[in-house]
Amino acid sequence: FTLALLGYALMLAYGYSSFPYDNACDEGTQVSANYIGTYTVTTQDFKTDENVEVNVTISANETNFEFCNQDMLTYKGKSFPPIPRFQPEGDEWMTPEQEQWAYILGWTSVAVLCVVGIIYIKCAILSSIKKIFFKSYKPDGKAMDIKFSAVEEIYGYVPQIKIPGYAFPQLLCFIDPIDRGLVGWRDQYHSDDTHNLILDVPKVAKAVEEWRNNGKSPDDSRVDDLRLFTIIKDWGAKSNNVERHERSLEFSASMR
Length: 256
What we know:
alpha+beta
């Protein structure tokens, strides 16, 4: 984006300074009497490739024009920024109003160039200097063949919220089907239902009660389908063999 902005600023400045793009400069002298009159000019129609005759009238109050290169991009000498003072001496073509805006656009392109340059210097040079004073993080050690389920102190991300004045967080999901050890805390005096906000909603509490009365089947979709709170799932290892214990927690943040 920064390079595109720089290119736009430069081309806008050069394009405006080159107006009217005809490479014709007024010499400021009256046309010779030898040229006064009406002339017939033969040109070609590019669509039909036919010759077309056009009448051109030169009056006594006309002035002489000469060729001048108005494209500052092609100048071999100094032409940046494209401001009026870089016009060839004697071949100036800009109007007073055009000169005013050419100054504004020309110096604006310089400002954009400086800003873009600073950005790239910061990225290229300062990043190298930063490496001298600050160490980058590199992992140390090897990955151990320790299963997730074998670490007793590790917990899952179980959606819950801490409310001031309560000793324990308030749960925001149905935790019955998952490994209770993933929660990370346990109230020794009250059940988990005391700290579960989803049970404050009557239809959720009814669905949970029916699920428990039906033998706590693996299918807990009756509760999940209510989509009132976050959904949590736990796929744990079925045995303690070398099979990897993976826990996948999927959430539906539809706090409606």
